[in-house]
Design a protein that fits this description.
Helix 6 packs parallel to helix 7, helix 10 crosses helix 12 and helix 17 crosses helix 18. The longest helix has 16 residues. The chain is an alpha/beta fold and 438 residues long. A 5-stranded antiparallel sheet has the order 2-1-5-4-3, with helices on both faces. The protein contains 19 helices and 18 strands. It has 3 domains: 115 residues, Beta-Lactamase; 125 residues, Helicase, Ruva Protein, domain 3 (Orthogonal Bundle); 164 residues, Rossmann fold (3-Layer(aba) Sandwich).
Amino acid sequence: MIRNMPVFSDLRRRNLEALFDLAGVGLFSTDLDGRVRSMNREAERALRLRPGQAIGLACREMLGAHMCSEDCALKLTRKDGEPRREHLLRVVETDGTQRDLLFSTAFLDAPDPEHREVAVAVRDVTEAERLRRALRDRWTFHGMVAASPRMKEVFALVTEMAPYDSTVLLLGESGTGKELVARAIHGESRRRTAPFVTVNCSAYSEGVLESELFGHVEGAFTGAVRSRVGRFEAASGGTVFLDEVGEIPPSIQVKLLRVLQERVLERVGDMRPVPVDLRVVAATNRDLRKAVAEGRFREDLYYRLKVIAIELPPLRDRREDIPALAEHFLGGLREATGKDVTAFSPEAMDLLFRHAWPGNVRELRNAVEHAVVKASGTVAVPADLPPEVGRGPAGPPRDSDRRRAAIDAALRSAGGNLSRAAALLGVHRTTLWRWLRG
């Protein structure tokens, strides 16, 4: 409420009070000693004060600060009479939580110079600052983008163990990025300048897979008209990535075990051992322990593979990565397609955030591509997404989470510029501020 304004008539004071409360911005004034003379409801909400609580208090007492900072906007304006715009102040509450407040100040004229007041506009930008920090904290690691603690832990583990030649087993659903993690392990290792060779173990029949992995000599089987080097030998000095390792037939499992134990192999049709210098990274979306229990996978091979096991979480368990990933894919697809799609509408981001993502990151990337190709403007809307994305929500997150995801994506696309982010979201700047404060 606006109080202590004797210069104005009661009617004019009430009108000003109503106008200030409609402004959508926290406003208060202080005298030349820094004591609060008036304050509107929005400022009381921003500063978490009861109605009328701040009147007569020194600004320092109102904020609960032990001392005033020398670069305080209010202090500087009182000192030199110059206005200040958007000075950030971090306030630490008694419970240890932090809030970020943005102050703008200017002098108000008065007939008596001794009764001049300083007008202060205040906004609680705690959420905006949190999002800015999240943007700074977003990690890009060997082509992977993440903001979630779980993926950052994966990245940290990769960095920690990559310099060693220990065999790694990557576990996770299809589409969680196991090959990208395998490439990151290779890229962080001392073998980074040597070959990285990928084998999809589910793509070949038993006989063909054996030849692909170990190679063969001329005449080893019908059609073997010449000798051929296998993938293990081709990766000499580097890394072999065995995708879908759980699909390897038992007869080949024995030969793979020898490669892991002794670093030697035998080509098909040849009994001479061939030494190999390589690292093996394997991946599966199957439960290998269950396969061991059922006799479909060798127990000794299982333990040789999982010297270091890294489990990649599904996208539905790290939803905070969805805006970062969507924006990352959007940037790449803009260049690839030549279409200037710069952001997702809040409603479209809401659908992305709610979807179950059975296909994980691979499905998200495809959904973004679908939206970019179909979009007719610069903002992708729900109609641009694949139909299944709008039909199968995963038991939805909170409204605040959905809104935060949309704001996060808009701020990323706008480079942190709030006016541009508001335009992308289709709302007024003051509405975006209200959301950020909310």
